[in-house]
Amino acid sequence: MKKLEITLLLALVAFQFGCKETEYVESAPQLEFTIVKDNLVFVEGATISLYTTQDDWETHSNVVQSLQTDSKGQALFEELEEQRYYFFVEQDELNNLADIAATAEPLKIGQKSQVLVKIANTNL
Fold first, then answer.
1. Which Gene3D superfamilies match (predicted)?
2. CA–CA gap between residue 87 and residue 90 (Å, rounded)
3. Which of 23, 35, 64, 82 could form a disulfide with 73 if both were Cys (CB 3.0 to 4.6 A apart)?
4. Which residue has the higher pLDDT, 24 or 30?
5. How far apart are CA 82 and CA 28, in angstroms?
6. Which pLDDT score is estimated for 86?
7. Would residue 87 count as lying in a domain?
8. How many helices and strands in the chain, by DSSP H and E?
9. Cα-atom radius of gyration of the chain, to the nearest Å?
């Protein structure tokens, strides 16, 4: 019986030293776009450019990051800052000037915000 108690005590001590403390780290904000055109058709190969200010968006300067959409019309921006972003989406003659051009709210740590953007020909 004494050997069993000693074995259990040693197992408990070994288990405690074998455990590691886990530190929870919140991920940086993410921004996921889905780009569509007429009849909600996904747009592959559209370029999405992010800006931090409306002035930069208006002049198309100081791009924070640019990505192209995949076959499902999606692109995911990761490791962003907690703030509001402005964006310009374009593919050939199509763009988002007739639709939304900024996140409704500032992005938040640990959250993925999703935006659906419709692009159209604004040169008509």
1. Immunoglobulins
2. 10
3. 35
4. 30
5. 8
6. 98
7. yes
8. 2, 9
9. 24
Assign residue 81 the CATH number of its domain.
Answer: 2.60.40.10
Q: By residue range, what is the domain housing residue 36?
A: 25-121
- β-pair type (30-37, 112-118): parallel
Report the predicted TM-score, pTM, of the whole model to 2 decimal places: 0.79
Query: What are the residues whose beta carbons fall under 8 Å from the beta carbon of 41, sequence distance 6 or more?
Result: none
Q: How many domains does the chain have?
A: 1
Instruction: Check residue 21 and give its pLDDT.
Output: 57
Residues 6+ apart with CB under 8 A from 82: 29, 106, 107, 108, 109
Q: Where are the alpha helices (DSSP H) in the chain?
A: 2-18, 54-59
Cβ burial 7-20 (10 Å sphere, 16+ → b, else e): eeeeeeeeeeeeee
Task: Find where tokens 């968006």 sit.
Answer: 57
